[in-house]
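Quick start: read one record
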Amino acid sequence: MSLFNDSSFLKQTCMTSKHDWLSARPIAHRGLHNSDNNICENTLSACKAALIRNFSIEVDLHLARDGVPVVFHDRTLERMCNDRRKVRELDSTELRNITIGSSSDYIAPLSELLELIDGKTGLILELKGIVNEDAGFVESVAQCLVDYQGPVALMSFNHWILKDARQLAPQLTLGLVAEGSERRYSGHWAIAKECEVDFVTYDQNDLPNKFCEEFRATGKPLLCWTIKDAERMKRSLNYVDQITFEQFDPDNI
C-alpha cells in the first residue's frame, strides 16, 4: 500500500504562496563560492555573491559551544581551516577569529548572515545534527529568526532536528534533506508526515524515485542537490521544481 494514500497528510499539501520562493530561483549551494576568486563555501562573501546575482542561498549551521549557531558545514575545522579542533568545542567568538582557507572570511554567526541578507533573497538553513549533541540547537536558530523579515526555511537530514523544529517553531518553513534507494521510501514518508514538512530536497543521483514522484504530486516543492553542470541541471528539472547548484552558472545555459 502506498503511504501517499493518506488523506490526513493530503489535506495539508495545498501549495501556498509563502512557499513559492523555494522554486523561484536556483539555490546557491553553500553560497556562490568560487575557488578561482578565493571565495570559500559557507562564508559571508559567498552569500553576498549569491545575493548580488539574486540566487537563493543554502548554508549549513552548527552550534558553537556557547549555544550560538554558526555558518559552517563540517564537524571539524580541518578541511577548511587546517585546524583539527571540532566546531562545537569552541565558542562563537573563538570561531569568528578563525579565517577560512586563505581568504579574509571567518566563521560567521547566523546573526551576521541574517543581517547581510536582510530578506533580499531566499535563505535555506541546513541544521547539521549530531546525535546526543543537539540540545538547544533548534531553539537557538529559531530565536535568531524571531524578528527576521524575509523568505527563510530550515531543513535537515536528521529526524530529531525536524521533530524539534516542527514542535518548537511551527511557523517556520521546514524541509527534509534525503537520499537513497527505494528501500527508504517508507522511512521518508514517515518523517515527512510526522514532521509535516513543507518541502523535500533530494540527492539528484537518486532521481527519479517513487517517494519524490508522490511527494511532488502533493503540490509541495521538490528540490534537488547538488547540480554541478548544465547537463545534470536539464535532466533534474524533469523531476524537480528547482535545483541546488555549485561550480557553474545556471543562468548562463
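The domain at 7-245 is CATH 3.20.20.190 (TIM Barrel).
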